[in-house]
Amino acid sequence: MSEKKFKDPGFTINRVYTKKGDAGETSLISGNLVSKDHPRIISYGELDELNSCIGGCRERLLHYLYKVPEFKRLDDSLLRVQNELFNAGTMLATDSDKNWDGMPVITESELKFLELDIDHANAKLPALASFVLPGGNDINIWFHISRSVCRRVERHCVSLSKIEIIDPIIVQYLNRLSDALFVWGRWTNLKLGDKEELWDPNNTSSGKDKDKG
């Protein structure tokens, strides 16, 4: 067996509450005490929200495996992403000058695999003539929720990068992941045979009123 690249988490969770955060502060991995509304805390807290949404994608996929066995490959990719998000969270929760050997991180390899996943799914999809409206089935909705949360995390990480040093690969990864979530949402609609609705700027109350006039 090959040696692990990253060290396993060096802690045991045996208590849910510690009361240490009751004053509105928390500690970074490096030990620095910061407010819970610090941009770093907001950034990796929203990574946690994104991870929960991706767990929702996986749960819905499993309900359709009997229809689309290919969803197993996608579920494997999403499990990989969930672990990668924890690695990215470790990077955000650690001051850049406090990194340690074997610290879980995001690398170019993670970007490469996301791009391969995107290319694999996108190769089967028709070209778009407009923006896609979320819908078609519950899996598609979960992917669009995850995509929009991912974009929000990306925006917060960009804001954080303007006041503190963070590895730029985190923003690159989130940018690529949001693309993957978009493509995966389209791909699940295709595989389940559900209609993909496109944005029609005239399919509105004012657009229909104009037709009547």
Regions with little confidence, pLDDT below 50 for 5+ residues: none
| SS-derived structural category | mainly alpha
Order of helices and strands: EEHHHHHH
Mean pLDDT: 86
Question: How many H/I helices?
Answer: 6
**Sheet having the most strands:** 2 strands, antiparallel
- What is the end-to-end distance? 73 Å
Helical percentage: 40-55%
- Can you list the strand order of the major beta sheet? 1-2
Sheet-strand content, in percent, reads: under 5%
Categorize the overall geometry: globular
- The number of distinct β-strands equals 2
Alpha carbon gyration radius? 20 Å
Written account of the structure:
Helices cover about 55% and strands about 5% of the residues. The protein is mainly α and about 210 residues long. β1 (about 25) and β2 (about 35) form a beta hairpin. The longest helix is centred in the N-terminal third of the chain and has 24 residues, at about 40-60.
Itemize the secondary structure elements and their pairings.
Blueprint: E1 25-27, E2 33-35, H1 39-62, H2 71-92, H3 108-122, H4 138-161, H5 169-192, H6 205-212
Antiparallel strand pairs: 1-2
Index terms:
213 residues; mainly alpha; 6 helices; 55% helix; globular
Summarize the entry for a quick read:
The protein has 213 residues and is an all-alpha fold.
